[in-house]
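User: two proteins, same treatment. go.

Assistant:
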Amino acid sequence: MWLVAPLVPGAIREFLDGIGIEYSEIHEATFKEVAERHAYALRDHAPTLGSAKQADTFRNPKTNAAVRSHNGKFRNSLTPEFRSKLDRLKDSFPNGYRFLSYPVHNTTRIWLHSSVNVHIYCGDSFIAYVKVGGDTIEISPRFNNQISGGTHDRNEILFSKIDGLIAKHDGFKKGWVTQRYDSGAYVLRQPAPQEFFDDLLHVIEEGQAALEKKV
């Protein structure tokens, strides 16, 4: 069984995860198109993605502050192929798995759009392209093919600071990160600490917030 809807609230996601049912969020226009194709009438008063009010909050892993969710314009979109690759990280690279799962299981401005691998976004900013291996994740500033409509390439939010975060946690010295100088990507593996990934999330969220204050 597979649930597809414009919005899958956090509590529903947890329930579905617990009983092994897959789920995906799609744009409301696509949802309506499928409903019309099958002659299914939607209720007029159903809230839209852009207008639905969300009371959910999440805990910023760096500040522990409660933060409101984003306005609903952008949503996670994960393919079964990517979900399968992500699930394999649970045992081989738990902290990497938790990092990539964070936007899926929490109400946050960070969101994912995947095919075989995944683009990470925050609000309307493209942040990074991530390739998932058997026990590694490769984080690149270069997007694959194209980024989602309505977003902008702002990978510098993360990549202007990632070297400092790696140095802070002795990543090169301890051997859990290598850099691909041809692409500017970083390959992360065990034992990359949870604190490093918390810092990545903090930098992404704070960088996007600072950008929006300037607008």
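Protein 2:
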Amino acid sequence: MKKMSYYGILLLAVLNISHPGSLHAQEGSYYTLGVQNVAPAKITFTNNSNLEVKVILYKDNDNTMKIGLTSFNIKPGKSHSYKTGVYNVKIFKPQFLDKHLETKKNVSGNLRMSGTEKKFSAVRLSARENTVFKNNTKEKIKICLYKSSDVMKTIPIACYELKDNTSTASYSGDEKSFFVSVFVPGLIDRLLVSQICPDQSVITVNKSN
């Protein structure tokens, strides 16, 4: 696996504007992306502290953290699970006026709380799964990733070259989803397939006649 140079990415960004489609044929063959989501179904919050805690989850882009998505109390020695996502988290000691204990941003894996009211801590136990790219075409291909908001696919966030079926690439960013574009590398790269894919997935490039 070879990561692309800065100048190669710039050239590719210019060329990609002229390839808006999602499925392309080349010499009678079609290329598709197989997507297997490997993200855990739920995030688990475990309370190993000596006090009951109140946990409030917010959207990851809610930097002011004023509108909570959900909240739940966890007694000492207990845990609570919630659907997988990326959240900003505030933890309180529940009382008439809740006492703030800790704030964690961009939480996407299990969280363990421990300690006392005076020495409280919350530690991430697991990170997000990397997105893995596989080449099942028996050909040399180039894969580029674009933010889901970059509908024109002008600025890649990463590009990789996979030489054959034994080559893989791994991306460890924190986007919820992104555009994946696959090219035949050359003096002028040719786009084969492009679609939006979720992160924390195994994405396989396939070729069929």
